[in-house]
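JOB MANIFEST
job_type = single_chain_structure
chain_count = 1
residues = 102
[input]
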Amino acid sequence: MLRKKRGLTQEDLAEKTGLSQNFIARLETGTKNPSIDTIEIIANAIGCDIEEIVKENPKDTNIRTKDLHNKLDKMIEIYGKEKTLKIIRIIEEILSCFLILL
């Protein structure tokens, strides 16, 4: 886990990011899924790239998740990191609209 490798407690990370320690704990146990913005905030706080956080997630062992990681890597390779992040944010926005309609 990158947070621990950097010598940070959940409380330290909460302070650096402005997120609650409880929220960070839920992210780490997989009971909460972060938005791309949250991943970016955490990456900046611990001094790494978003890709490192996504690849480091120990909960991501199923085939579907590995496939999504491969697709994300391919998108970054084709479009670059910044454009890929914009695409993901647009997708999140579209999905949130659908959730409101449900």
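[summary]
The chain is about 75% helix and 0% strand.
The chain has one domain: 2-101.
exit_status = 0
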